[in-house]
Amino acid sequence: MVKSKLTFGAAMEELEKLTTKLESSEVDLEEGLKQYQRGLELVAYLKGRLAETENKVQEINRKFKDVLDEETV
Amino acid sequence: MENLSVTDCVKSLNGLLETQVVSVEGEVHEFAINQGKFVFFKLKDEQSSVECFLFAWQLKVPVEDGMMVRVLATPGLYQKTGRFRLLIERIEPIGEGALRRALALLRQRLSSEGLFEVSRKRSVPRYPERLGLIASRESAAYSDFLKVLKHRYGGLEIIFTHVAVQGTEASRQIVEAFQRLSHLQPPLDAIVITRGGGSLEDLQAFNTEEVARAIFACSVPVVSAVGHERDITIADEVADVRASTPSNAAELLVPDRLALQRQLTSSHQHLQRTVKHRLSNDAASVQQQSARLVNIFARLRLRIEISITKFGSIARSFQEHQLVVMNQINGFAQDLQRSWNERQELFSRKLKSQESLLEAVNPGRVLARGFSIVRQAGRVVKSSKRLTVGALIDVTLADGTIESKVTGHH
């Protein structure tokens, strides 16, 4: 499973690296299949992230730590 | 009427004057900064002139002679001389010309200090997660930015700080907002500062030295989208990324989800193709390897068969050879035996004849017939002439030996 704390950028980077590695045929078949599985998970995770249509806006005060307002736009 | 000392007179008048805060517009003359701390100039119009004083740290914008300014000041008398002057609290250029001139001066100074250096500009992460936003809650810039952002990308966390984007408080509030957002933990990926277009005066807060320095000191990359495309503020120039409009800031900050979706689909297909290709390559390789193995096995079998055949024929010929050799050996042995027997027979015949010959010449037999052997000093004496009278001789007879002495020759 793809960990939820993985950022979009990190997942994208991992996917790119993994694809390059798979192409280079440096990995053996078994490892390759594992990587492929991981690649599919990453694609699913990234697609899921892209399906998010909302951004969360949190308003904070310039001087104090309290959150003034929170809304989803 | 009460008589006052000069000091009290000045103090008393100052007390009256200090209650009168005035806002005055005029042209700057004889502008001077003493010891880097005290600023003196005269404010003039066609008919009048008034002396002004302020501290250098209060000077937020560059001021020079001939510049039209608006001052917020308290009138008063200088205690020592009683000279009248305006104690300036705030000074700002007014009118397009003055503003442009002040801006040019500030820009020149900040540029020489390296605040606009291209080499120090940081890039914004390709896929940001947390963004800071400094804008006015009511502005079109704020809603435009969020709208375009949402249209392009989702799942972002936006930490927003409301500030006044024009007026006297704007500059200070923007500085505070930067200080606040710059120190958030976990750190933001970038901070966006935005407001819509306006006159040079409207955009004044984004052209101040303190905002420029706040952006310069900010610990995360700053994206500035202030005014319209043609208005370039100092904030824009100091920022790491300059966007032409609030919408453009959103475009520069986040990738477009549709493009990303397409990219991901293509990545997915590519991944599948790669693995498929890899698998079919591997299958072909297995096929090839197994064909090679079969081939090698067939060759090996052939070689073994050949070897067995060869060995059989060698064994056979060896057996034959062995037989021949055995026969030969047997032949030799028989020959040897035969010749040996022959030789032995011959030899025993020869021996017998020698024996009888020997017997015939046996001196013993001669002695038995009455002969004797004479020896002198062990040597057989064959002639009497060799013996002298008196010589001692041994005479051997058939049954023994006697010692004699020669007494004479006959």
Q: Could you explain how this protein is built, in words?
A:
The complex is a heterodimer of chains A (73) and B (410). Chain A has 73 residues and is α+β, with helices and mostly antiparallel strands. Helix content of chain A is 53%, strand content 15%. Chain A has a two-stranded antiparallel sheet. In chain A, β1 and β2 (67-72) form a beta hairpin. The longest helix of chain A is centred in the middle third of the chain and has 23 residues, at 29-51. Chain A is elongated and about 55 Å long. The mean pLDDT of chain A is 81. Chain B is built from nine helices and 14 strands. In chain B, α4 (170-182) packs parallel to α5. Helix content of chain B is 46%, strand content 22%. Chain B is elongated. In chain B, β9 (222-226), α6 (234-238) and β10 (241-242) form a beta-alpha-beta unit. Chain B has 410 residues and is an alpha/beta fold. The longest helix of chain B has 105 residues, at 257-361. The model of chain B has no long low-confidence stretch (mean pLDDT 90). The N and C termini of chain B lie far apart (222 Å). In chain B, the strands form three sheets. Chain B has a five-stranded mixed barrel. The chains are: A alpha+beta (73), B alpha/beta (410). The A-B interface holds A 7-9, 12, 15-16, 18-19, 22-23, 25, 29, 32-33, 36, 39-40, 43, 46-47, 49-63, 73 and B 125-129, 133, 137, 146, 149-150, 153-163, 173, 176-177, 180, 257, 260-261, 264, 267-268, 270-271, 274-275, 278-279, 281-282.
SSE arrangement of chain B, N to C? HEEEEEHEHEHEHEHEHHHEEEE
Number of DSSP strand runs of chain B = 14
Category from helices, strands and their pairing of chain A: alpha+beta
Query: Low-confidence spans of chain B: pLDDT under 50, at least 5 residues?
Result: none
- How would you characterize the largest beta sheet of chain A? 2 strands, antiparallel
What composes the largest sheet of chain B? 5 strands, mixed, barrel
SSE order of chain A, one letter for each helix or strand? HHEE
Radius of gyration of chain A, whole Å: 18 Å
